[in-house]
Amino acid sequence: MSRPNTATSRNSLEQLKQLTKVVADTGDFELMKAYEPQDATTNPSLILKAVQKEEYRALLDQAVAENKNNGVSGEALIDKVVDRVLILFGLEILKIVPGRVSTEVDARLSFDMENTVRKAHDLIDLYEKEGIDRERILIKIASTWEGVEAARLLQKDGIRCNMTLMFCLAQAVACAEAGAQLISPFVGRIYDWYKQETGEDYTGGNDPGVQSVKTIYNYYKKFGYETEVMGASFRNVGQITELAGCDLLTISPNLLEDLSQMQDPVTEKLSPGDSLNEPIEKLELDEIRFRWHLNEDAMATEKLAQGIRVFGADLRKLRHMITESLG
């Protein structure tokens, strides 16, 4: 049952914050300060966009200067500079948000469990050398089977994982069974796929992206999983307000601005108590069943592959910028 947020004198963003942890989906520090989110997320595309701005180029230049004469060359040197750029952005973000920052593993490792684990440890080590407790870091990993298995190992080592590029229930169930700290179902990209396939402009509760997150949320709460659900990749404020009550929502600056300018009442649409009454069957998964369920879902298969390609392409662009800076 939807319950109103009685603080109607507050703007819609303030009301949303009473029901859900709001996370900033940006690499822009000034925008984070403006909207006071609890946490912040980054990805290769956001970092690339940020370092192309004059005010953030200094972080890339700093990473290059710190590594240029350290005796490493070639791809290994670029790897170190990339990692340092990610850490420098993370450190700045942690000065702004009271909670956690998500830092993403190289998309090229999406099908490589062993090297995903190694890279996650490397990133955590770099943060800890800067005096940052690992509890404030979420390592973002693509929700492939290899990513799920990497998360299983990392969580046992006390490294918390944010499972990204998620588009279906099978991915969500596998991540929860692995003990992942948090998942990020991509509302907007699911919406994009269905809109293109059907020509229909979905709104409100009929939005397939919204429905996907509601299904995952209800499944987790009904069966007692502790993995946090964070809706991501929104296209409009309607998708956001339809998920009020979700554990977390990560929102881009333009939509945070829209919400802050609205006075519309925001009501709770998701709650653990309501989930207990949902008629949901348990999904039993192993690797074979996981791959079959994913294969049977054309949208999830296509969007997962596309997402990995896009993040990989933007990482290559960042690496090219670094190569040019190294001279």
Q: Helix coverage percent of residues?
A: 55-70%
The succession of helices and strands, N to C, reads EHEHEHHHEHEHEHEHHEHEHEHHH
Shape call? globular
CATH topology tier name: TIM Barrel
Query: What's the count of strands?
Result: 10
CATH homology-level superfamily: Aldolase class I
The average pLDDT value, as a whole number, equals 95
Please report the first level of CATH classification, the CATH class: Alpha Beta
Distance between the termini: 60 Å
Topology, element by element:
Blueprint: E1 3-4, H1 12-19, E2 21-25, H2 29-35, E3 39-41, H3 44-51, H4 54-67, H5 74-94, E4 101-104, H6 113-129, E5 137-142, H7 145-156, E6 161-166, H8 169-177, E7 182-185, H9 187-198, H10 208-223, E8 228-231, H11 237-241, E9 248-251, H12 253-260, E10 267-268, H13 272-275, H14 287-296, H15 298-326
Parallel strand pairs: 2-3, 2-9, 3-4, 4-5, 5-6, 6-7, 7-8, 8-9
Antiparallel strand pairs: 1-10
